[in-house]
Amino acid sequence: MKCHLRPKVGVPTIDKNQFCYEVNNEKDNSTTECHVGKVNTIHSKTSSTEELEECCTNLIIKSAVHKFKQLTADGEKEVDKIHASTLDACIKFNLLYASPKRSIVLDLNENNLNLIKSGSFVMYNYARLASIIHKFDDLVQSHQYPPMAEINEVQFSLLRREEEWLLIRDYLMYFPYVVNEVICEIGGHPPVHKFQHFLLSLSHRISTYYSKVRILMDPSNHLIPLIFARISLLKAVLQIMTNCFLIMDIIPITKM
């Protein structure tokens, strides 16, 4: 299942638009339209889809300008990819935060950072997880860590912190139920906003986790099993986020 956000043909304004997802079933190539709520705007003259995109683009560039002061040509291309993926995520997060049965109000103010807050936050946390896992792989390649254990040999019983079990119970185990809730409504008004809520909640939880808990510890023999367990947990979270991005047709980024 993959979703493509698009405006309904022939209706150029946001406030009168019925935005929808095209949900493609890749097995039989069938398509189902999933509408999101009616979108109204404030601080906007035209209420056009282009204005929403322009507003988000300017905010993304403004918020990131201090990070990219001197760039090579390749560096500029990489930043362009980051901005494009972040923009796509921000637009979809703005249009998906409410149930299809409710209206959405967007404040298209050029200083309204809330327009990009959720999308950027989720993309940042995905990139942060990818970075930690990439660093672990580099440490294995440089022989500072031993090779990762097979999944059936990982000692998950070492994950004893409350934050770890909340991640497992509330997100890894719960994700199939979120998917099922959306799929069950295909043909009506699928609550695709639940993917946005799930991703945002998961991002807050994982951000708190890696801020409190040290993942890549000293490679002492007694710590290696715990490192393997925590890296396995992060890989599982990253896979869940990747699955959500695939469904929402968002290209994730591995560095920001």
From TrEMBL:
Which Gene3D superfamilies does the record associate with it?
Isoleucyl-tRNA Synthetase, Domain 1
Q: Which InterPro entries match?
A: DALR_anticod-bd, DALRD3, tRNAsynth_Ia_anticodon-bd
SMART domains given in the database record: DALR_1 (SM00836)
Q: Which Pfam families match?
A: DALR_1
- GO MF annotation terms: arginine-tRNA ligase activity; ATP binding; tRNA binding
Task: List each copy of the DALR anticodon binding domain by range.
Answer: 122-256
BP terms from Gene Ontology: arginyl-tRNA aminoacylation; tRNA C3-cytosine methylation
Q: Which PANTHER family match?
A: DALR ANTICODON-BINDING DOMAIN-CONTAINING PROTEIN 3, DALRD3 PROTEIN
This chain belongs to the protein called DALR anticodon binding domain-containing protein
Q: Which organism is it from?
A: Strigamia maritima
Organism lineage string: Eukaryota, Metazoa, Ecdysozoa, Arthropoda, Myriapoda
